[in-house]
Structures are given as C-alpha cells and as structure tokens.
Design goal:
The protein is 44% helix and 14% strand. By secondary structure, it is an alpha/beta fold. The chain has a domain of 188 residues: Alpha/Beta hydrolase fold, catalytic domain (Rossmann fold), CATH 3.40.50.1820. The longest helix has 14 residues.
Length: 273
C-alpha cells in the first residue's frame, strides 16, 4: 500500500484528499495543510515511487498505468473506510482524480483541479518527444530542470520551479522513466476526458500565466456541464504554491457548496468573474 497520512477533524464529516503530481510528494501541500485541517478531515498520499511510497515491489515493475495508480488511491480509501471524498489535485494529479471520477464516481464528491492538464499544446508535445529521445542518454534531472523552465518560465515562478526540481531529486532514474512513460501516453485519455464530461462537480483553478494548459481548460469548461473555472491573476502552473490563500479559499468554498449528494439545486458561482 502507498504511504498516506490523515488529519482527523473533531466535528467535520467531510474528507478532503490531496493528490500531487509527477515528481512531487504530499509535502507540496504545505501551504494548504493548516487551512484545510482546521475545517475538514484531511488525507495526504504519496503516489507510488514518490515521497515515502518507495517500496521494493514498485521498483520491480517495469511500467505503470493509470489503473494501477487509481487502485492505489482506492486501496487507501478502503483501508480508512472513507466512502467518498472531495479530491484536490495539482498538475498530473488532476488526471489521476479525473480518472478516478470516471471509473468510481461514487467515491468522488467533488474535484478541485489545480494547474489541470487536459491537453498538451505543441510546445508540450515537443517537450515530450525530446524527453523520449534523451531519457536514456541524459541524467533525468537535466530533463526535469528543462521541463520546469518550460512550464514555469518567469522569474516570479522561482519558488514553484525550485520546489518542482527539489522534489524531483528525490526520485531515482528508474521511477522517473516509468512516470515519464506514463505521461507520454496520456493523449488518448485526455482526449476521452475532453469529449466526455463528468457528473462529478469540478472546479478548475488555473493561473493566468499557465500558458501551456489554460487555453484547453477554458475550452473544456465552456463545453461541459458541472464544471467551473477560476483563473488566478499573477499565477503560473503550480497555483497552490503561487497563490495559496486564494487557492485555499476558492477550494473550500466549492467543497462547502458541493458536500451533499443531492446537487440538483446547487450552482457554483465563480468568485473572480
């Protein structure tokens, strides 16, 4: 089982589960933890190969797929007897949450998708091709630093970029290759998500400077029901780090509106319109 940590709340019955992205760990939620554990039961997980989820069994596997990753998360929910939760994700973590909602919608009350990856633009596709060409020739940290600079290019993104790289250093080359291979095969899954909406209420929180992923998310939200979009000014891809207070408040506001199963008469109103 992957590593997890819980922060039970004395009064709240709502669980909020946080899913990090590739190369990260549960520690990237350090600007969210204090706020959320004061209001909800909180679940943090380290995806396989990340953080404290580094076990010999994982190293023996030659590849990962989203079904395996999804089942890791479900195993934790079952272990803790959590019937359903609100899920908060960043970057690749948003794909894992979206996949969970597609296959096990009864376990997902709502989705908060920060820096959501819903389509790779031309620059993103080129980056993945370069990574595939050089992943066996170059140390993985060189590639990861390149990715960090392309996704988070501005000086004001330095804190997020440094965190991105610092967390990635904790991966080994084998884990990097498996996760990179997983990411390089996501286009069919993302295409499915763009065509088929989810019945689970979804809030996309994007930085206005997230030039690689914001355009496709705007298009998706305009075409699918049960979705809302908040674009945060002066923020890049890692919105929970760049704009933590606004990210926390908007996420909690959404959770409070969609914490009940009967959502027929509830409609989310964007706060930044």
């Amino acid at each position: 089982m992957i590593h997890y940590h819980t922060y039970p709340h004395k009064e709240s019955k709502e669980w909020v589960a946080f899913i990090h992205g590739a190369g990260g760990s549960s520690s990237i939620w350090f600007k969210q933890l204090k706020y959320f554990k004061s209001k909800y039961n909180v679940l943090l997980v380290d995806l396989r190969g990340h953080g404290k989820s580094k076990f010999p069994l994982f190293k023996k596997l030659r590849s990962y797929n989203f079904k395996i990753i999804r089942e890791d998360v479900l195993e934790v929910l079952n272990q803790l007897n959590i019937e359903s939760a609100h899920f908060v994700g960043i970057s690749l973590g948003t794909i894992i949450i979206r996949d969970l909602a597609e296959n096990n919608p009864e376990r997902v009350k709502s989705m908060i998708l920060g820096g959501a990856v819903m389509k790779l633009n031309l620059r993103g596709q080129l980056l993945m091709r370069l990574g595939n060409w050089f992943k066996s020739m170059l140390p993985y940290m060189i590639l990861y630093k390149l990715f960090a600079w392309v996704i988070l290019p501005r000086r004001k993104h330095k804190e997020s970029r440094n965190l991105f790289v610092r967390e990635a250093k904790k991966l080994d080359q084998g884990e990097f290759k498996k996760w990179f291979a997983l990411v390089s095969e996501i286009n069919p899954l993302l295409r499915f998500f763009r065509i088929n909406g989810s019945e689970v209420p979804s809030l996309y929180i994007m930085g206005e400077e997230d030039y690689m992923f914001l355009p496709s998310v705007k298009k998706l939200v305009s075409e699918q029901k049960n979705t809302a979009l908040e674009v945060l000014p002066n923020c890049g891809h890692v919105v929970n780090i760049d704009c933590p207070q606004l990210f926390n408040e908007l996420s909690s506001r959404f959770i409070q509106q969609f914490q009940y199963k009967n959502l027929d008469n509830v409609k989310y109103q964007t706060a930044l319109s």
